[in-house]
């Protein structure tokens, strides 16, 4: 079809505020979440978690537990053949280590799964869990990633694992890359900076816990209703683990109470499904908040050694990055998170010489997984604090230093080809970058020149800090989405999309894209998403892929439908040329036929057929959105307490599809990173047990903790994105933590290279303790 | 054990097991707008109004509700007839995943019943017990401030 060139101004629905398509149900408290149903004879499942960081299970005695009234089933490693899989919830073949059994005879972290009880009531399941007698042979635990490679403790002794680099050295994955000649460039550089940075375990902390409900339907098919970001991967992986045919599984994704990566994991679906398959009864498993905080997933801790060779004028000539990533007890997402750290940290700086050594290692600690940002927050913390150090040392304004060193429009990014998602990637070129505007806008909004340069004195000192960063828009060459659209006789359209709305508003955004193409109001698009029986495939909601990839699929499908409407209209008008306007097909002579007439006639009287189309979309591009984050903070130099006063976040997300929702993404990402900076970190005792396993001790930001937030978008028109769009979901989480660290230096001269930032570290830096 | 109280405007007699919480009772009655985020009184997802005050229903034992007026978001408005706060939350984009939303709306309603003209500080205080991981509270605060 001859596609109309759309500019921002003549778009009616894209780029406009639209009330969420699921909003009415959500504000009125409709039963739309996974747990909002009651099924007859439902069994409640509780998990027995390992209290030890590392142990062999010598024996499990379930006889007492089985006697608790109401207990129907107890599952342990004795009930399953040895089969290794990964819980990562990624596309096939997964780039994560296949090192996990549904239940294992060795436990490798405090929280590892030992047994499951299914009972008629939750209370009975809880009581029975207490009555399972496990005899452990306690093994020495590996609790320091710096020791992993040389330790004589092996977290995974067993053979038969795949996608593990060298289990004897606890090495999950290793990445090496070099571009140019880093050592020669370091020699020639005027200055060489070298520092070590580190970041801790942090939790996604979605408010809805992991919850899955399973049952057998009338046709004896297994239904899995689960809070997941990846329904199609849940279907494939449950089928694999339980050796049950894909054709007999249906995964339904209802509304999801937040995911942030954590619900990409196949955390409990396979256990819930196993109970239903073995008993024939519906089953339900829901994590408690405590379980979320010790037996779910988190952000990978990393130790990053960075070396940069810099010229006197501030241009970075060489970057040498060394990552040691703590993969915890299982290698889910270890390789790919690390490769994103490396890819993002290395590709956003124009330096011609770059080198990487990344090693992800096992420890007997909690299992990290996917968390919004996926490696980028770790990488940008190190890189952007180092840039601040360079700016200070060379007496160049930090904003100026960034202008000099970031990649620009038209640049090729050769490192992206070397560092793909866990393997070789695809060539990357920057078609659009609003970075320069992001820097300049942010400067204005935070009042940079005045606050950065003001005299710092007194007990409470004010400072500002800034960073810049990028992300991707989907995983190039890997992510794929499909959509299907059919027309109804009142000119409404059913849009069935594989895309998974996890609270991000993607259903609404996809409806806007379809509405824009089909030239009908958004209310005319009825969205149904991610149900493996009803909608076409989608790799899932991760890697900021939904707008760019799923949006692309919807746009294509809508364009096909529009063409069919036009063709049918022309036939009805008996003309060769016509156009579409205001829900009508109009001929040159002014005769017209409405969408309603077209569909009704197609249904009942003329060349009877359903106007409908499907489309798939994938991309070898993953155009980076860009962002700058500026922080204004105050440090109390007596107590070491940091108060964040204002965060300015300026993003280039291409053409924003829904400005209000895009702002919401930024506003929601900021407190997650404020927490990462100041209050959110998992604390372990000396035996490897997490100790802050509730929201009182693991403090996420509340309404009273929030600083002033200013969000702003600069416009670019990404040629490869639907209507010029790039992604937005992840990028704003990268900035606040390093911006705060830099602002603290500006305020009081204390350089912090390790998260979390605590009053103690600041007082130490000030020489007060 | 038995109690009598008003639930969303209706005189209600409830039988309950010792130790049962209002949260469990409400969900067993298919009032699904009260959500579980912790069952420890830390998150506010289970908020209900008890005599016009926003409370964590997961901490309220059934035997203490005798004679009380209990409300959930269902009592404020329905799909066909939204309460103005529900509408405001929608219009301002204060709903993302929506899991915390019924609780947020009830906490806001409790505030507005007491204080028709709350300051931003008042709103922050009123929402302090309702954790939201999606919105950064920016738009929920705005939704209540415009009242
Ligand atoms: S569920 Fe009641 S406060 Fe969290
Ligand atoms: S909207 Fe998701 S927790 Fe508040």
Automatic annotation (TrEMBL), chain A:
<dbReference type="InterPro" id="IPR036856">
    <property type="entry name" value="Ald_Oxase/Xan_DH_a/b_sf"/>
</dbReference>
<dbReference type="InterPro" id="IPR037165">
    <property type="entry name" value="AldOxase/xan_DH_Mopterin-bd_sf"/>
</dbReference>
<dbReference type="InterPro" id="IPR046867">
    <property type="entry name" value="AldOxase/xan_DH_MoCoBD2"/>
</dbReference>
<dbReference type="GO" id="GO:0016491">
    <property type="term" value="F:oxidoreductase activity"/>
</dbReference>
<dbReference type="InterPro" id="IPR008274">
    <property type="entry name" value="AldOxase/xan_DH_MoCoBD1"/>
</dbReference>
<feature type="coiled-coil region">
    <location>
        <begin position="115"/>
        <end position="142"/>
    </location>
</feature>
<dbReference type="Pfam" id="PF01315">
    <property type="entry name" value="Ald_Xan_dh_C"/>
</dbReference>
<keyword id="KW-0175">Coiled coil</keyword>
<dbReference type="Pfam" id="PF02738">
    <property type="entry name" value="MoCoBD_1"/>
</dbReference>
<keyword id="KW-0560">Oxidoreductase</keyword>
<keyword id="KW-0500">Molybdenum</keyword>
<dbReference type="Pfam" id="PF20256">
    <property type="entry name" value="MoCoBD_2"/>
</dbReference>
<feature type="domain" description="Aldehyde oxidase/xanthine dehydrogenase a/b hammerhead">
    <location>
        <begin position="28"/>
        <end position="140"/>
    </location>
</feature>
<dbReference type="InterPro" id="IPR000674">
    <property type="entry name" value="Ald_Oxase/Xan_DH_a/b"/>
</dbReference>
<dbReference type="GO" id="GO:0005506">
    <property type="term" value="F:iron ion binding"/>
</dbReference>
<protein>
    <submittedName>
        <fullName>Aldehyde oxidase</fullName>
    </submittedName>
</protein>
<dbReference type="InterPro" id="IPR016208">
    <property type="entry name" value="Ald_Oxase/xanthine_DH-like"/>
</dbReference>
UniProtKB/TrEMBL annotation, chain B:
<dbReference type="InterPro" id="IPR051452">
    <property type="entry name" value="Diverse_Oxidoreductases"/>
</dbReference>
<keyword id="KW-0001">2Fe-2S</keyword>
<dbReference type="InterPro" id="IPR012675">
    <property type="entry name" value="Beta-grasp_dom_sf"/>
</dbReference>
<dbReference type="Pfam" id="PF00111">
    <property type="entry name" value="Fer2"/>
</dbReference>
<keyword id="KW-0479">Metal-binding</keyword>
<dbReference type="GO" id="GO:0016491">
    <property type="term" value="F:oxidoreductase activity"/>
</dbReference>
<dbReference type="InterPro" id="IPR002888">
    <property type="entry name" value="2Fe-2S-bd"/>
</dbReference>
<protein>
    <submittedName>
        <fullName>(2Fe-2S)-binding protein</fullName>
    </submittedName>
</protein>
<dbReference type="GO" id="GO:0051537">
    <property type="term" value="F:2 iron, 2 sulfur cluster binding"/>
</dbReference>
<keyword id="KW-0411">Iron-sulfur</keyword>
<dbReference type="InterPro" id="IPR036884">
    <property type="entry name" value="2Fe-2S-bd_dom_sf"/>
</dbReference>
<keyword id="KW-0408">Iron</keyword>
<dbReference type="GO" id="GO:0046872">
    <property type="term" value="F:metal ion binding"/>
</dbReference>
<feature type="domain" description="2Fe-2S ferredoxin-type">
    <location>
        <begin position="1"/>
        <end position="76"/>
    </location>
</feature>
<dbReference type="Pfam" id="PF01799">
    <property type="entry name" value="Fer2_2"/>
</dbReference>
<dbReference type="InterPro" id="IPR006058">
    <property type="entry name" value="2Fe2S_fd_BS"/>
</dbReference>
<dbReference type="InterPro" id="IPR001041">
    <property type="entry name" value="2Fe-2S_ferredoxin-type"/>
</dbReference>
<keyword id="KW-0560">Oxidoreductase</keyword>
<dbReference type="InterPro" id="IPR036010">
    <property type="entry name" value="2Fe-2S_ferredoxin-like_sf"/>
</dbReference>
């Amino acid at each position: 079809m001859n596609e109309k060139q759309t500019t921002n101004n003549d778009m009616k629905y894209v780029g406009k505020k639209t009330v969420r398509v699921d909003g009415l149900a959500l504000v009125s408290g409709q039963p739309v979440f996974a747990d909002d149903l009651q099924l007859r004879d439902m069994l409640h499942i509780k998990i027995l978690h390992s209290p030890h960081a590392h142990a062999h299970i010598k024996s499990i005695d379930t006889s007492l537990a089985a006697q608790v009234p109401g207990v129907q089933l107890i599952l342990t490693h004795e009930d399953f053949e040895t089969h290794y899989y990964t819980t990562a919830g990624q596309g096939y073949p997964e780039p994560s280590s296949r090192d996990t059994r549904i239940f294992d005879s060795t436990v490798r972290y405090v929280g590892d799964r030992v047994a499951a009880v299914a009972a008629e009531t939750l209370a009975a399941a809880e009581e029975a869990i207490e009555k399972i007698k496990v005899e452990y042979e306690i093994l020495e635990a590996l609790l320091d990633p710096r020791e992993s490679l040389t330790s004589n403790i092996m977290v995974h002794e067993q053979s038969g694992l795949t996608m593990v680099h060298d289990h004897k050295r606890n090495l999950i994955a290793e990445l090496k890359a070099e571009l140019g000649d880093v050592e020669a460039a370091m020699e020639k550089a005027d200055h060489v900076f070298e520092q070590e940075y580190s970041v801790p375990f942090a939790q996604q902390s979605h408010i809805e816990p992991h919850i899955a409900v399973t049952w057998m339907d009338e046709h004896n098919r297994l239904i899995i209703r689960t809070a997941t970001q990846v329904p199609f991967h849940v279907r494939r992986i449950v089928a694999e683990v339980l050796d049950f045919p894909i054709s007999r599984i249906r995964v339904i994704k209802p509304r999801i109470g937040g995911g942030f990566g954590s619900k990409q994991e196949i955390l409990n679906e396979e256990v819930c499904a196993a109970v239903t398959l073995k008993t024939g009864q519906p089953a339900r498993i829901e994590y408690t908040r405590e379980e979320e905080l010790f037996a779910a997933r988190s952000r990978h801790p990393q130790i990053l050694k960075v070396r940069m060779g810099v010229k006197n004028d501030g241009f970075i000539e060489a970057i040498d990055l060394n990552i040691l990533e703590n993969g915890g007890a299982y290698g889910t997402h270890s390789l790919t998170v690390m490769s994103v750290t490396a890819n993002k940290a290395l590709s956003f700086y124009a330096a011609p010489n770059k080198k990487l050594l990344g090693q992800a290692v096992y420890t007997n600690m909690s299992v990290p997984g996917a968390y919004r940002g996926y490696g980028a927050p770790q990488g940008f913390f190190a890189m952007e604090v180092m840039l601040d150090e360079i700016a200070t040392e060379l007496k160049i304004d930090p904003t100026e230093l960034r202008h000099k060193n970031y990649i620009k429009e038209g640049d090729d990014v050769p490192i992206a080809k070397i560092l793909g998602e866990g393997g070789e990637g695809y060539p990357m070129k920057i078609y659009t970058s609003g970075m320069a505007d992001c820097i300049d806008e942010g400067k204005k909004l935070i009042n940079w020149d005045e606050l950065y340069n003001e005299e710092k004195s007194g007990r409470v000192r004010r400072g500002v800090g800034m960073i810049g960063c990028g992300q991707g828009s989907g995983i190039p060459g890997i992510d794929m989405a499909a959509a299907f659209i059919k027309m109804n006789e009142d000119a409404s359209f059913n849009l069935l999309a594989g895309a998974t709305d996890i609270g991000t508003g993607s259903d609404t955004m996809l409806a806007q894209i379809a509405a824009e193409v089909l030239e009908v109001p958004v209310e005319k698009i009825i969205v149904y998403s991610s149900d493996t029986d009803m909608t076409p495939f989608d790799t899932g909601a991760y890697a900021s892929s939904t707008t760019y990839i799923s949006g692309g699929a919807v746009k294509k499908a809508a364009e096909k439908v529009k063409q069919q409407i036009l063709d049918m209209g022309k036939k009805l008008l008996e003309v060769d040329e016509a156009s579409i306007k205001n829900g009508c097909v109009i001929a040159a002579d002014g005769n017209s036929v409405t969408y309603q007439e077209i569909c009704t006639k197609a249904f009942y009287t003329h060349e009877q057929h359903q106007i409908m189309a499907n489309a798939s979309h994938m991309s070898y591009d993953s155009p980076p959105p860009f962002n700058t984050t500026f922080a204004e903070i105050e440090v109390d130099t007596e107590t070491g307490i940091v108060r964040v006063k204002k965060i300015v976040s300026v993003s280039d997300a291409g053409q924003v599809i829904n400005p209000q929702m895009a702002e919401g993404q930024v506003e929601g990402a900021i407190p997650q990173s404020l927490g990462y900076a100041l209050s959110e970190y998992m604390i372990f005792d000396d035996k490897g047990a997490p100790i802050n396993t509730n929201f009182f001790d693991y403090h996420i930001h509340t309404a009273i903790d929030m600083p002033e937030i200013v969000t702003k978008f600069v416009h670019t028109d990404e040629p490869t994105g639907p209507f010029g769009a790039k992604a937005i979901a992840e990028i704003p989480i990268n900035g606040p933590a390093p911006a705060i660290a830099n602002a603290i230096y500006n305020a009081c001269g204390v350089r912090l290279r390790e998260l979390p930032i605590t009053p103690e570290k600041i007082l130490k830096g000030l020489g007060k303790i | 054990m038995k109690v009598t109280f008003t639930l969303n405007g209706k005189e209600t007699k409830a039988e309950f097991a010792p130790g049962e919480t209002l949260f469990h009772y409400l969900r067993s009655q298919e009032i699904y707008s009260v959500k579980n985020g912790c069952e420890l009184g830390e998150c506010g997802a289970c908020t209900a109004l008890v005599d016009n005050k926003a409370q964590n229903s997961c901490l309220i034992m059934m035997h203490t509700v005798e004679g009380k007026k209990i409300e959930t978001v269902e009592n404020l408005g329905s799909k066909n007839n939204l309460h103005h706060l529900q509408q405001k939350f929608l219009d301002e984009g204060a709903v993302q995943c929506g899991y915390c939303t019924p609780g947020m709306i009830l906490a806001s309603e409790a505030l507005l019943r007491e204080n028709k003209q709350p300051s931003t500080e008042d709103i922050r205080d009123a929402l302090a017990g309702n954790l939201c991981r999606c919105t950064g509270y920016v738009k929920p605060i705005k939704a209540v401030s415009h009242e």
